[in-house]
Amino acid sequence: MKIRRIVTGHNNEGRSIVKWDSEVEAIPGRPGFSYVPLWATKQLPAKLTNEDPSTWEIGTTIADGSVFRIIRYEPGVAKRWHRTDSVDYAVVLSGEIYMQLDEEEVHLKAGDVMIQRGTMHNWVNRGTEPCLIAFVLVATEGGQSTGWS
């Protein structure tokens, strides 16, 4: 999976320009899981820099920052129960998926939006097609960076 990412910026005269226009490749994870790191910030409010965060080694979240990525869940994706120190905005772009919580689960389809607020959860694709979800993860006050394990 590759995603075209266009990032704007400013030239020496302060006029708006396209800073980067490139394809960002997916990074494989556990079986049935891959993600495309599109953008991140190391602090909130965000500071505009000339760094390209798609080259950073980022876990699930960044303490005091934000992460934007697209994740692909294949049918039968390996389980990963986890909790993040973040508020996560998730938009299902295609396919279907189940979000499991400690006490229940919810079925999401393309166009559905999930707001995940630091709860223990797991994603399960019981379908026959991949599910693509766009995530924006915003750090919570005093939260820690979390990894992929």
Low-confidence stretches: none
What's the main sheet like?
Answer: 6 strands, antiparallel
> What is the CATH T-level topology?
Jelly Rolls
CATH top level class name: Mainly Beta
Please provide a written account of the structure:
There is one protein chain. The chain is 0% helix and 51% strand. The chain is mainly β and 149 residues long. The protein has one domain (29-139): Jelly Rolls. A six-stranded antiparallel sheet has the order 3-4-5-11-6-9, with no helix packed on it. Strands 8-7-10 form a three-stranded antiparallel sheet, with no helix packed on it. The protein is globular and about 55 Å long.
Which terms would index this structure?
single chain; 149 residues; mainly beta; Jelly Rolls; six-stranded antiparallel beta sheet; three-stranded antiparallel beta sheet; 11 strands; 51% strand
